[in-house]
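Lecture notes, unit on protein representations.

Consider one protein chain, 448 amino acids long.
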Amino acid sequence: MNKNQVQKPSYYIEKVSLVTGEVLSDDFGPEELLVRDHRDFHIVETYARHLTSVFIEATGDEKRVKAAFKKARNLGKTTADMVAKVAGKEPEKVAQKLFGLKDREFFFRYKPRWSEDTDVGQVLKKLNDEAREALDRTRVNGQMQLRVLLTGGTGFVGKELMWQAATMPEIAEMVVLIRPKTIRDRQTKEVIKVLSPEERGQELLKQLWLDDPGIAHKFRFIAGDIEQPRLGVADEDFEELCVSLTNVIHCAASVAFDDPYEESFMANVVGSRNALAFSRTIQEHKQSKFVSHLSIETSYIHGRQTHQEAREDEIVFPRNFYNNYYELTKAMASLETEEAMIKDGLRVVQLCPAIVVGEGRTGNNRGDLKVVNAPVNAFGRAYQELKERRGKFMEWSKAKVLTQMTNIFPGDRTQYHPRRLGGRRHSSSFVRSPGGGSADSPGHRLSN
């Protein structure tokens, strides 16, 4: 990992005084942007949040329940003030000790990424017109013939895209970027063998049941690494791709919720930058057939939204912060993607899926087990906490509540639609674009 490429959050975010509205010069670390840094997991707060969920589910009146708990919070502050006067202590410290209540005198916001004078609507119109013209040029005897580069093909979403592309006549070829894989002995850690991109690709096709010669010929696997400039693609491959590719789909990312900031930044932000630069070079090539770049982001770039719906036309730093560095760095990557579109003229679309766990009715997830790791690991950590803290009533009670909260697994049968290609649609259909306009154009979606 090249730590020189990891930038501080202050490159994207600024700290602002709630009192004066001035930008504060205080330095801040990535940990201050996560909710855990602003919550001490006090037992009273833990129970209050749990009870809030219980009452909302029981009454169906979320607004009224939250208003009631807000009054309870204010009562807690009043009680803390009275106790502080009697004890001769600072009210804020008493409130935090008794009820876990904290007050902030600042907030965070994203820095502007381009001039206010930029006519975003005009930029988007120009890019859409260019994309339609480029798409029309891909037609052969009236049929689109797209040649697509895919990053993240070994991941959950990437596998689904491959499976859908296999049956789409519009996709003439899919080039999958993939790294060699080193297999080591579990005990000695000695290298047993190294699988080439082609070997890994053939294994992937077998896993997806796409190894029939009539289908497999559509896929090609080349070596690359999203954390390297130009995606680590060899010169010979790159020259050929410059004159043949019509689309780039970037869905490679680190989805580990517990990765440190530096690792998440390299995979999600630096990886996105390199993919965007790759597409921009191809788009500007004299013999380019390039149509557009598709960036798969996540709806969690909006962080913890509890008071209002997230906006499609703007990323606003969440009032309730981010849950982890995955969400934070994906938001940063989305800002990089927006900037590449508005400032650099790259034809790009962003799709922001929510939680993806498999086809809604059957649960088919193409054999990928990583999508269930998060809830399983959360339960495991909570259970371990429960075992370690037995005997301390307050801590034990808190761990028990956390364990109960992890016994929830999402499922949505309404996602099934037999008329959609492959009988499923994992990504949400909204497209983020600044200025409120749609950045979508024909041929960008692999399923409808």
